[in-house]
Amino acid sequence: MPTKNRICIAVIVLFHLVGLIGFIIPSLTVLFIALVPWHLLLMQGVIIYSYEHFNSRFLLFGLITFIIGFMAEYAGVHTGWVFGHYRYGGTLGAKLLDIPLMIGVNWFLLIYAMGVTLQRSRLKSIMIRILSGAIILTLLDALIEPIAIRFDYWHWLDGNIPFKNYACWFGLSALLLFIFEQFKFKRQSIVAPALLMAQFVFFAVLNLVY
Which domain holds residue 10? Predict the structure, then answer.
């Protein structure tokens, strides 16, 4: 494994581990909540740094994913048509039109990490990769939701997480993974899959703790 990839994976593991400790220890929680946007930006930097043969196509994919993810969240918050009726708290940082800018970054990270993971799998069918990836990301959202509510990422206006949220997560994930497939990126390293795994472990552990 190239040194660059080892460094990237080390950063991913270290910062998720430290973040996990910070979220678990009450005296550190407020500080680590404030660091959430910076953590997402750091992970974005790691993914960009790890990308092999960096080019404008990669930037275009990132931009498209950011915009579609942001627009979907806008529709959700302002109309309730997507995901359900919810509002964002302050944890994800600066907002535009009541939507945190980091939510677009988060969609990029999740879709790219899932896309690369499937790219490295033995699944040959594009449709199976897309559907499998959408299911996995929906399962991840099921882990994220209780933690997000507890730490003021967002909250549901009626107090309950609607089934519509998971259906829309699946649909939006499938759409964005379809777009990922259209770019036909060259096979990438395990850095992005490592990030996806770190996300699963991070939120799974927090669910066990809380």
Answer: 3-209
